[in-house]
Specification:
Layout: H1 2-10, H2 23-32, H3 36-44, H4 92-95, H5 106-142, E1 148-151, H6 153-158, E2 169-173, H7 179-188, E3 197-201, H8 212-219, E4 221-222, H9 223-227, E5 239-240, H10 243-256, H11 263-270, H12 277-286, H13 292-304, H14 311-315, H15 324-336, H16 345-357, H17 362-371
Helix pairs in contact: 3-5, 10-12, 10-13, 15-16, 16-17
């Protein structure tokens, strides 16, 4: 089920691949990883006629929710097509509407309905968070503090298919010389800290190479320009990174965490592809400042899952062809939170971290981790 979960998250699952899957178990994993919006988007794109078999002796073993057999229930957006999908504009909860997905199997149809309701509830929570963010960014703009969204509400609006994705943390970037002003204003705007974490930064991540912060600002786009609407507030001037920089720092963030449980982050990155040629060039050039696999390792993984990552970007991960299968199996277990027969999950994470930070083989990384488990005579 791990492979189906991953492909469901990144949008490359085919209709027939759900056949024989216990939907209750799959749904539990989707919930635990916060992938409801991604799963709904993938299901909404599937062709009619897909179905699942009930487990032998389980009756309605895969049933999810009380309404199996209900009529058509569909996912995010009514105009989803292959490639970079346009998403209807408007209030986020309203965009979790009619789509193309419909299944003859009542179990899948019921799951679609339940997923849609959960995602709509999440979208409503997101919109409440946006009200607070709007007020903060408006105050920052009034005090001449430019703001760029790193993750969270604004990014959710920009990337197609992100409607309803849970937002627990909002990261905003401001110029370094205005950071103190921004922090003071943050304290003046009341919000429920148990519902939302807000971070202010002057750089996208730690240890950035010289000049990249300035290039991020120079290449950034206004939120209104990117979305075609005043999705937060026309007065705020909120900016977002260009897609090449978004993918760069998304990959670096996931790699620094050794991809540990980072399936949702990788699923977010998958929505950025295909990139325009210019953005792919920016990504390739900026990535030279990091060890190759810190950027290209996650992209290689996406490519192996069927995401349209340019081959030139994936190949820079320097994965040896004879170890591709092993590397894939290890990394898939890491992102899904699983272990191997001879190594628990946290040891696999250690091996993945070593592999991402170096140019050595996965075999060497696994052996290094296993040797640390061997008692000294």
């Amino acid at each position: 089920m791990r492979r189906e979960l991953i492909r469901l998250a990144v949008g490359t699952l085919g209709p027939g691949e759900l056949e024989g899957i216990d939907l209750a178990t799959l749904d539990a994993r989707v919930q635990s990883l916060g992938l409801e919006a991604h799963a709904l988007r993938t299901l909404s794109r599937m062709k009619k006629g897909a179905g699942v078999r009930e487990a032998d002796g389980q009756g309605s073993g895969g049933r999810v929710g009380p309404d199996a057999g209900a009529g058509p229930d569909v996912g995010i957006g009514s105009n989803v097509e292959a490639g970079k999908d346009a998403e209807p504009r408007g209030p986020e909860a309203d965009r979790i509407g009619a789509g193309d997905g419909h299944f003859e199997d009542p179990l899948l149809q019921s799951w679609m309905k339940e997923l849609r309701e959960r995602v709509r509830a999440g979208a409503a929570r997101n919109e409440r968070a946006d009200e607070w963010i709007r007020e903060l960014v408006r105050r920052l703009a009034a005090n001449e503090v430019p703001v760029m969204a790193l993750k969270g509400s604004a990014i959710r609006r920009v990337v197609p298919g992100m409607g309803g994705r849970p937002v627990e943390r909002v990261a905003l970037m401001v110029p370094r010389d205005r950071l103190a002003v921004a922090e003071a204003l943050l304290e003046e705007v009341p919000y429920r800290k148990e519902d939302l974490t807000v971070e202010l930064h002057w750089r996208p991540t730690d240890d950035v190479p010289p000049g990249i912060v300035e290039r991020c600002w120079a290449g950034s786009r206004s939120l209104d320009e990117e979305t075609g609407s005043q999705s937060l507030d026309e007065e705020t001037g909120m900016r977002v990174m260009a897609p090449g920089h978004r993918v760069l720092f998304g990959a670096v963030h996931a790699a620094r965490l050794a991809l540990d449980g980072e399936l949702r982050q990788l699923a977010d990155l998958a929505l950025e592809f295909p990139l325009e040629d210019r953005e792919a060039e920016v990504l390739a050039e900026e990535a030279r400042a990091w060890p190759p696999r810190m950027v290209h390792g996650p992209l290689w993984l996406l490519a192996r899952w069927g995401v349209p990552v340019p081959a030139a970007l994936a190949e820079r991960s320097q994965v040896r062809w004879w170890e591709a299968g092993l590397s894939l199996r290890v990394l898939e277990r890491v992102v899904a939170g699983d272990g191997l027969a001879f190594l628990p999950h946290h040891r696999l994470v250690s091996a993945a971290h070593r592999w991402l930070a170096r140019s050595g083989s996965m075999t060497a990384s696994l052996l290094h981790t296993a040797e640390r488990l061997t008692p000294t005579p």
